[in-house]
Amino acid sequence: MRVVASEVRRLRGVRTTWVVVAGALVLNAAAAVFTATRLPAGELAVPDAVRSLAAVVPVLPLPLTALAAAVLGALAYGNETRWPGLPASRVTVGRRLTALLAKSLVVGAAALLLAALTLVVNALAVRLALPAGVDASALLDPPGLPAAPFATGGIGRPLAAFLALAVAGGWAGLLITSLVRSAVVGILLTGALPALLEPTAGLLLHRAGRNWPVWVRELLPFQYGLDWVRDAADRTAGALDGVVLAALLAPAALLVLAAVLAQLRRRSL
Amino acid sequence: MIQITGLTKAYRRGRPPALLDLTFDARPGMVTVLLGDEGAGKSTALRLMVELERGHGLTLFDGRTYRRIRRPEREIGVLLPTGRPEAGHPGQRARAHLRMLAGTVGVPARRADDLLEQTRLAAVADHRIGTFSPGMHRRLALAAALLGTPSTLLLDAPTEGLSPSNEEWFGAFLRSFALSGGTVLATTRAPEEAAALADRVVTLDAGRLAADQPVVEFRRTRLHPEVRVRGPQMARLADLLAAQGGQVRRDGGAGLAVSGIDRTEIGELAYRNGILLHELADRVVQRPVSYPSALPTGSGRSGRVSIRTVRQETPERETPEREAPGAEGADDRAPDGQPVAATVGRPAGPEPERQFDHRGLQAGRWAAAALAPHPPAQAQSPAQAQVAAPAPVAAQAPAPAVPAPAPPARTAAQPPVLPAPAVDLTRRTPRGASALGGPAARPAAARSTVRPTARPTGSGAAGPEPGPGVVDAEHLAANPTDAELLTPARIRGVGQHPAPVHPFPGRPWSAGSTGLRPAAPAGRSREPGGEPPAGAGAADPRGAVHSGAADDENGSE
């Protein structure tokens, strides 16, 4: 129990935690407002409501909240390996596993809290930012909440999945950092994994004759981004004109630019 | 109690091991210091002890290995350098950091506040660690190590790179920790610090145990106080100092390193002679491990080690040299213990071989006494004076000053070529012998081995014998013993604590003054003006002519 308390102190005692939480809330609210302003007029559909509440930004690997939780998890481990308070105390396996368990408990709870907080803030933001033509009384007003939100097609399941996603993101950050022992590498790997895993899992499910539930597709930003791109593109093969070429070369150019800038700032390789 | 047995670590096959068969004990109530240069294996030893590295050998903390201790933080506080200067996350506040670690260790968070008080960090407890100075970081790390109220502290280079005041604080803290019954094992590179901090010094050299000594013996055999003098007129000062019996060597361009004379006396001498000084500073230089002290103590686990004392042979070795009147320069150096003989720290007792055990206080007293002047030598001085001095009138003058009653029969039948055992290294009076105890109290064997050459005719009878006893008792009263040397007031005073002194050869007053020197800085009787009566050891063959010959001799040296 004391180990859990000490992990809470570790999380609370560092300024980075609060910066990350505040940044995640602000970005989420901004994305939610942006999505809400572009909602079509009329009755608010459930997928639209989920997307705006979860502040899904297409082609991000994870929802913003899950990414923030991943950062918290990575820092919880990375800080300890970087500044070990008790250098020789980690000898026994039992102690190390206890510490890891305590960290995952604390990070999971923090991610859950963060996700809940995000939902509340986003709901407020969406409510304030909704255009006049959109009728959201069925979904967002407290008295108008559906009786069985977790029924099929309801808003409950996607939001529960959103909370689960945030916790999973936090744990992934923690465990990956425990493998590589560096917070930065842990965060980068956590961000890179969904881009690999989501299409692969989707492909395997498809082969097995199943498919993602639609609301999962709506919630996972990378998957959603893929669908989005696929729908937007017309299937005719165009010529390799300048715009396409620029679009293809832009990432490479950005990478080279970043590398050169990094070298300019450094004093050694 | 930490028992370290045979710690060995080889990083790569074919390379010399980083640590080879290190065996020693760290006892409760004592500060044990591992002393060694960079790369001597100190940190490796500590890391092997807490099993942060794999190696051979066994370390028992109160009979258990580190791995077997259920809650190691509760029993052993470890302070190892982490490669980062910060004690914790720079963005965290000190109090939060310690409370967090208190949770990890499993003690109430109140303990963190207590420790902040103890380590003088209470005032800055609510500031971020990133704003701390190196000393504060180190103190915070120490507080973290102390969270579990351990009874043992392992510290790797606790004062490395700290300011003197922080160093002092650490020393005081560790000593008080040890005084309250804890076991402290620290490492350091600085021998002065080891001497100031430790009760016991374990010297490592390239991964091997070079010496395991109590601190008194360490100070005596390994540290060598010097005074550094700098100024424009060093050649003249060097002559004067040499005349006063100091050992002078050149140190840099316009500097001298003087040993045997303390700082104030050098300053006075310079002032009196109108010599300008630019610098006058005490310092301590380290001596390499000398052979007898390099023998490790018997740990009970690696066999019993006993040594033969070399003392007994020295008088016989010296006496032939005595016969040549011009050769005093060589032989007088030996008696005062500069070479190996003195570093044994133990007089040859009646028994030729004895267990080498310096744990007891008595051993230290023997050691201190062995460096003391040899009362018999002083008592015999008139005889020698008469033997060697050509002018009997000059030689008679100092004789009454000797406290021992001068034997009347002495003057008559002294063969002029008699080898005089001017100074021998054996203590012939047992410690408890009273002044009036007479010859019966002495071990006959010891006397017979040394004396016969000195007094072939037995003319001395019992006459001069009480003399040594008197001088000896006085000497003991004037000189602090090792127990007194260990009192906190003296702990920092390494520089002032006189180590064995090598007097200038052939100086009558140097023989006397060095005699009184080894233990008593305050009770030193060498005043520049007048020589002490006890040491008026006209013992020296050249004592009669010292006033005239002094300057020539010093100039030649």
TrEMBL record, chain B:
Residues 290-356, 373-392, 398-557 are annotated as: Disordered. PROSITE patterns: ABC_TRANSPORTER_2 (PS50893). Residues 409-423, 431-464, 533-544 have a biased composition (Low complexity). Residues 310-335 have a biased composition (Basic and acidic residues). Signal peptide: none annotated. Keywords: ATP-binding, Nucleotide-binding, Transport. Residues 2-231 form the ABC transporter domain. Pfam families: ABC_tran. The keyword Ribosomal protein does not apply. Belongs to the ABC transporter superfamily. This is ABC transporter domain-containing protein. It comes from Kitasatospora saccharophila.
